[in-house]
Design goal:
174 residues; alpha/beta; 3-stranded antiparallel sheet; 3 helices; 9 strands; binds inosinic acid; binds magnesium ion
């Protein structure tokens, strides 16, 4: 089987939208400090670019949870691979995700993080696949809604490949 990538969201469009979300967050939290929690590895590019577009004091933290193995189908099994190094008590937390698909990963993660007593908690995702949702998860900030296709690039992988593409593309198996 050969793989082909069809461009869905180009680099410029992506960066323009990230700047808009950064400006929106800067307005919404005016006078406050925000703690961005980047969900590794997929959200790394997005979270770093987003943090540069926020004009408030920002803490950038990283954690890793996984619900996917080396396939394109959600297993429903979630594993905490790397926890935060800092407490989030009394902080304005924004969880930054690459894509919300079934919503299982985020639902689990939100319950866990809410229990740690943040001042507020919101969800920001680069991509949203609302058609695929099986649990009720509603992001507060969405970069782009995407169709029910497997997408790669700008942090998103297929078996750990394609994360480094500077755009979002649809993976086509020929
Ligand atoms: P969920 O728990 O089903 O919402 O899965 C979310 C996670 O699955 C994301 O953080 C991604 O790591 C992965 N994922 C879901 N859809 C895609 C896709 O189209 N391309 C690459 N990874 C995906
Ligand atoms: Mg992910």
């Amino acid at each position: 089987m050969s793989e082909k990538i069809r461009v869905l969201i180009g680099e410029e469009e992506l960066n323009r939208r990230i700047a808009e979300i950064g400006a929106q967050i800067s307005r919404d939290y005016e006078g406050e400090q925000v703690c961005l929690i980047c969900i590794l590895k997929g959200a790394a590019f997005f979270a770093c670019e987003l943090s540069k577009r926020i004009t408030l004091p920002v803490n950038l933290e990283f954690m890793s949870v996984s619900s996917y193995g080396a396939s394109t189908v959600s297993s429903g099994v979630i594993e905490m691979k790397r926890d935060l190094e800092e407490s989030i008590e009394n902080k304005n937390v924004i969880v930054v995700e690459d894509i919300i698909d079934t919503g299982r990963t985020l639902k689990y993660l939100f319950e866990e993080l809410r229990g740690r007593g943040p001042k507020s908690i919101k969800l920001c995702t680069m991509l949203d696949k609302p058609q695929r949702r099986v649990v009720d998860v509603r992001p507060d900030y969405v970069g782009f809604e995407v169709p029910d296709e497997f997408v790669v690039g700008y942090g998103l992988d297929y078996s750990q490949r394609y994360r480094n593409l500077p755009y979002i593309g649809i993976l086509e198996m020929a």
